[in-house]
Write a structure and sequence with these properties.
Elements: H1 5-16, H2 19-28, E1 33-34, H3 35-42, H4 46-59, E2 62-67, E3 70-75, H5 79-108
Keywords: DNA-binding, Transcription, Transcription regulation
Organism: Streptomyces phaeochromogenes
Protein name: Metalloregulator ArsR/SmtB family transcription factor
């Protein structure tokens, strides 16, 4: 039985839904990074990083590269980096819109002054 596309997309985004996995993907955007360097950048326990790398590897979004005793990870394709850039653009637009709305709200309805007892002076 084939999984509907919307369900496959939901599972894909669920796989991305962990801060450590997102951070790993961000660090891999510029090329392969060793596990040692990932650990120093992310500052988590090695076992936790290993679990998150395994999730990414099983999904096919990253690949491992062994050179002697050093293991590095790399993005399996360039589309992941584009997805992260798109997420950054979307978040920037959302946050910009929220800050503009906040400024508008603050200008439209100034807060009444509070008296020392905490009630506003109009009570």
């Amino acid at each position: 039985m084939q999984v509907p596309l919307y369900q496959a997309k939901a599972e894909f985004f669920r796989m991305l839904g962990h801060p450590v996995r997102i951070r790993v993907l961000e660090l891999l955007q510029n090329g392969p990074v060793s596990v040692r360097d990932l650990l120093s950048e992310i500052e988590i326990e090695p076992s936790s990083l290993s679990q998150q790398l395994a999730v990414l590897r099983r999904s096919g979004i990253v690949v491992s590269i062994r050179e002697g005793s050093t293991v590095s990870y790399a993005l399996a394709g360039g589309d992941v980096a584009e997805l992260l850039r798109a997420a950054r653009r979307i978040l920037t637009e959302l946050i910009t819109g929220q800050s503009e709305l906040l400024a508008e709200l603050q200008q439209a309805d100034p807060q009444p002054a509070l008296t020392p007892g905490g009630a506003n002076r109009y009570s």
